[in-house]
Amino acid sequence: MDNFVLITPQGKVKGRLKDSCMKYLGVPYAEAPVGNLQFKAPIEKLEWFGELDATKFANDPIQHPMYFGCSEDCLYLNVYVPKCVSLGIKLPVVVWLFGGSYVHGGCRGTVVKHGKRGLYDAETFAVENSCIVVTINYRLGLHGFLYLTGISDKFESNLGLKDCEMALRWVRRNIDSYGGDVNNVTLWGESAGAALAVAMMCVPSAKDLFHKVISQSACLESFYTPEEATEIAKKYLELAGVTNIDEINKYDYKQLTKVIKSIDAYVREKKFGICSVNPVVDGEYLKEFPSTSSFADLGKPILIGSNANEARVFGKVMKGFKRDEVMKRIFPSFPEEYRQKVLDAYSKNPKTRDFCDIAGDIMYKVQKYNVADAISVNNPVYVYQFNYAPVIFRLFGWGACHVAELPLLFGNMKPWFGMPLYLGDQTTAAAVGKRMRKYWGNFIWSGNPNYANDGDHPMDVVWSKYTSTDRNCMNFGKTDSCVKDQDVETMQKLQGERHFFVRK
Predict the structure, then answer these.
(1) ∠ CA(6), CA(7), CA(12), 5° rounding?
(2) Exposure on the CB side of residue 5, measured as CA atoms within 13 A
(3) The pTM is what?
């Protein structure tokens, strides 16, 4: 493995070459948000003296439960550069936003690491698609999303979202030195990261920093109003024992994060949503709810989708609940006869997994169509559904669940969560992943998943655009097909008749 020194506007950066990919790891894009910078918007990281050793990952954000390598000093990113950049061609750039309900995770994929490669190691993706991948950290939990602004004007809001914008500004200022094209930047996220990517389209100051969006399994209606977020913040401080908000910087992060389970329970009891902290539509930085935005004058193509059985992996949350309890929680304001109609549409013999499918469709699939319908008025939209479930996933009852596509897209399919999840299906899974990576890579290059450059031969299965009248959806599985999605009307019915997650 060779080291290589790059000269950038920030200073000299020493990365490492492995096979056909240069990796620049742990590059700071903002000043450490500690001390007086805690609970403040990020400040640009300027030049440094000497040479930055960028051969090892930096810290992940503070979270609960904590693991080795978490720190308040977490505003770092990683840059994966395929060797072909040496040819002098400016390559498209994709910026990855990890998921984790705004309280878990990190850009190296440490929690689900295998061997020396984390889940979000982008070497395979970057090399196969000849693009530059930037994976970033952003602040989580109370450090990134607790709405202290509603209690004291000394603090700022949406810090995790502002971190993402600062990382995009780093790309604008620096990526040319790494061989990237500043005029071809795609924002790519999954779950909470996907919601942040879509939210960025509603942030005026960020609109010129990226050109395309890839959104995987975004739950968009969990965003808070200022009133909701203020109530949650007050309860959070109460549970954490913070009596003087102006002195919150003096409290140890362990004391501040240990109450996460208690605040989760409080949020769900109040029926605010499913996450303890979320982005807040404050009317200043984040102007509108992404779930109801018209995305007027956006001018950005989007590739957006969800998985067939999103919420089955969360089945433990519903285990032990009686049918009526679960349905009342999902549809609190509707009569029993309506709830029964919904159940009948999913299964004649309802089980926990059916409740999970209903909840998953509402949280993820409905949002997909809301955004697709809005953006497709003026911009290209490509919709997908991920249907592939290997044997182990089916045995566990997960199906094509939330995050199941990530190992395939990143090409990291070794034991995940310490389990050989693709046992007996490795060949098929690898083929599905390679096809998906090619579609994603084409979109990153051209804004069209069928080809990287206009005039190229399209993929074997043509992925047609989505419109509100011609509702094309690419289905990924053992074989792929692009058909008119039959679920649209059902999803619209669920959305139109349910108010639990709706934010206006």
Answers:
(1) 85
(2) 7
(3) 0.92
Give the domain ranges of the chain. Answer: 59-293, 298-437+474-504
DSSP codes of every residue in 175-232: GGGGTEEEEEEEEEEETHHHHHHHHHTT-GGGTTS-SEEEEES---TTPBPHHHHHHH
- For β-strands 76-82 and 11-18, DSSP reports them as unpaired
Per-residue pLDDT of the chain (504 residues; tens, 9 = 90+): 567 889 999 999 999 998 889 999 999 999 999 988 999 999 999 889 899 999 999 999 998 777 778 899 999 999 999 987 766 789 999 999 999 999 889 998 764 444 466 889 999 999 999 999 999 999 999 899 999 999 998 899 999 999 999 999 999 999 999 999 999 999 999 999 999 999 999 999 998 999 999 999 998 877 899 999 999 999 999 988 888 888 888 888 877 888 887 888 888 777 666 678 899 999 999 988 888 887 866 778 999 999 999 988 876 555 555 666 666 666 665 677 767 777 776 665 556 566 778 778 878 888 888 889 889 988 999 999 999 998 888 888 889 999 999 999 999 887 666 677 788 888 999 999 999 999 999 999 999 999 998 777 789 999 999 998 889 999 999 999 999 876 655 665 565 544 333 334
Query: Which one, of 395, 440, 402, lies nearest residue 422 by Cα?
Result: 395
Topology annotation, domain 59-293: Rossmann fold (3.40.50)
